[in-house]
Amino acid sequence: MSAADTRERGNRGRHRRAAPQRAERPSASTLRADFTASVVVFLVALPLCVGVAVASGVPAELGLVTGIVGGLVTGLLPGSSLQVSGPAAGLTVLVLEAVNEFGLGALGVFVLTAGLLQLAMGALRLGRWFRAISIAVVEGMLAGIGLVLIAGQLYAMADAKAPGSGPANLMGLPELLVRTARSPEALTAFVLGAVTVVLMALWKHLPPKVRVVPAPLAAVALTTSAVALFALPVKRVEVQGLLGAIRPPSADDLGRITDAGLVGAMGTVVAITLIASAESLFSAAAVDRLHSGPGTDYDKELMAQGAGNALSGALGALPMTAVIVRSAANVQAGARTKASRVLHGVWLLLFAALVPAALGLIPVASLAGILVFSGWKLIPLKELGPLWREHRGEALILVATAVAIVATNMFEGVLAGLLLAVAKAAWETSHVQVQVDEGADRSGPLRVVVSGNATFLRLPRILDSLEALPKDRHIELDLLDLRHLDHACSTALANWADRHNKGEGATRVLMPAV
């Protein structure tokens, strides 16, 4: 999912369709189109499910479990007809932090709780409110995720272990470069990852007949073949088997969460809930513009995502969101109904059940390369320049959110971005003007008109203007044109009038009728 996609989602998601079309009735041609689209989506989803799981520090099979649930459960529920759900790169950093801090067993508890919260929010019809989130905060969130994802996956490309936090990963990159250059094995793995990144970047420029195969699948297939053909000494995906990887939450997991800290655990749950919900609903707004079928019911879609996450959590798997890459592939492949996304879940289930050993052939460096490329696409480099020229405050919020995520963690970074967005909105809406009218007769009272929105944010300016007035003049303070006067301003103006009246001058205050 690129930052451009996110901006498009935000702009297009502000308006619902006036007259959604009826869902297309099943027919032979519809079923053929859905079948073909489901195969395409399966081929796109397979390497991404595995890659996100490995990058999140969990067994590869858990990524497939989330993809299966996203197809078979979320895919059947009402909401958005054509968008596809599964594990997303956008939650990789958050999940990795949670697994490192609380353990793998706690992940199911977090995802299950987040799913229940999504169900509750959908039932309360809060889905539409996610469209009110500042696009600058969302793009900053994605940019921060992209930076942390790239920094962490560069280590995986060299078959090395990342130090941990975002700043530590970034600071350790020079040392990683030196170690990689000195180790033939690490250099081999890094080259495989680099080849994957190059293939992903150049794939869209190749002939259409070649691009029939999705870029992630082609990159994994080529690098896996090279590893097998030349017996390259690189790390490969560890395989446990589908049933062996599933681990439902237990009472012991709850105890470990309590011991590790409830505040941090609640912050993780809230972050998963908000980020997964926002990403899914922004994706729905974008997918609606890609097809002419029924539009999304945001509240029902939020409940569908909640049901999927609740079941994923009950199975101890990864959190899910709607994923724009898979959803766009689904639409572009000609999908007509939700049958395509359900069938893609069937193919994932068959793959995981029948040929799980195939995962053990995939080099970790190649999956890391896919995620490095995905992280790069999350950074809105092209949009930042125009945004800086046209909406400088929004650009600053975007950068500040990204930096905060890299410097702290996902939840605190997004919270910082939201607070900055609220502060910016409050500052911009609290415009106030102070006009001083000397009048024709300078011996008469000095008339001061205050108009606009008098809030505590503009109080210093108002008081500076008033305190600069002559102390010995009679003053008529006209507040009739104020649209809003908060308590802080009202109290401060009353105090100023009292002080002025104790001097040689006098003050008459004209207040609006309540």
TrEMBL record:
Lineage: Bacteria, Bacillati, Actinomycetota, Actinomycetes, Kitasatosporales
Record organism: Streptomyces maoxianensis
Protein keywords: Membrane, Transmembrane, Transmembrane helix
Annotated protein name in UniProt: SulP family inorganic anion transporter
Region called Disordered, residue ranges: 1-27
InterPro entries, per database record: SLC26A/SulP_dom, SLC26A/SulP_fam
Recorded topology in the membrane: Multi-pass membrane protein
Transmembrane segments: 35-55, 102-120, 132-156, 186-203, 215-234, 254-276, 346-376, 396-423
Keyword Transmembrane helix (UniProt): yes
